[in-house]
Structures are given as C-alpha cells and as structure tokens.
Amino acid sequence: MIQALNRVNQLRQIFNEQETFAFYQGKTMGGCFIGLFAKRKILDRIKDLYVCKVKAGMGGLTKNKGSVALRFKIDDTTFAFFNCHLSAGKGEVEKRAEMLRMILDHAFKKAKGLYKAANHDVIYIFGDLNFRIDLKNKEAREAIQADNIDFLK
To answer: Residue 34, class by beta-carbon neighbours within 10 Å (0-12 exposed, 13-18 middle, 19+ buried)?
Structure first.
C-alpha cells in the first residue's frame, strides 16, 4: 500500500520526503483491516491514536463479525474510522442495526480521552455492512437522483 501511495507521488513528480506516505498503525480481525497511512509531514500532529477490534459475531464470541476501528486527533479535530462486517441475511435489518450500535458503544471504551464514538468530530463507518434496499436498481437510482430518501427506507 505504501509503495502504491508513494508511486502516485512519483508520477505526480512530487519528490519531497515529507510528501511521502508512512504506515502509522493498523489492526486486523478476521477479514477486516484498518490502518492509518499519513504523509510524513503530518505524523507529528497525529495524537491520541487508539486502535481496537470489537467482536460482534455470536454475541461477541467470534471474530467473523464486528469491527476494527481507529481514532485519533489532528490538531483540534478528532476522527473515528470503523471498518465493519455485519450480519447478512434478508430481513435482518434490526440485527445489523443492533450490531452497529454495539460496535459504536464498545469500540473505544479503553481509550484515554474520547471513548464514545459519537463524541468525535468526524466519523466514518464503512465495510461489509450488508444493508439492502429492496428495490430494483433503476428504481433505487431514480429515487436517489430525486433525493427521495423516504422511498428508499
């Protein structure tokens, strides 16, 4: 990954060492990975980094479902990132929502400072969330284009 990021710099003819990327820290759980890659020039501004995993499969006993997450602060802005793998299955919306609530509640409990996900300035949740819109592709796209969010629920 670092090589690819730095190759882009070479192609853009950016050769300043401070503009190259470095791997700061990461965590894996099952098939999920999360990592913090940053330009060298901002590494000294990254503070309060905390990386964790939250098991959510079979009531938190297995690592096949859940999240790897990281949080940090740059200057006065706090960030939280969650790479999640939630339950699959048609009609399991409430189960997935509950898993996500549990992940957000438990992710940073052992971290110093901000230990609640909702207290961060910027929050990203991504991964294999397994939420589905039970519509044909064309219908969903038309609703999105029309900003008809209620139709998509």
So the answer is: buried
Q: Are 83 and 126 in contact (CB under 8 A)?
A: yes
24 bridge partner residues = none
Q: Is 28 within 8 Å of 66 (Cβ atoms)?
A: no
**What is the separation, in whole angstroms, between the first and last Cα of the chain?**
37
Summarize pLDDT for 11-59 with one digit per residue, the tens.
666 667 777 888 888 898 888 999 999 988 999 999 999 999 998 876 6
Confidence label for 142 from pLDDT (cuts 50, 70 and 90): very high
pTM, 2 dp: 0.79
Cα angle, residue 108 at apex, residues 131 and 35 outer, rounded to 5°: 70
Strands 21-29 and 122-128: what pairing? unpaired
**Cα–Cα separations (whole angstroms), residue 121 to 18, 19, 25:** 26, 25, 21
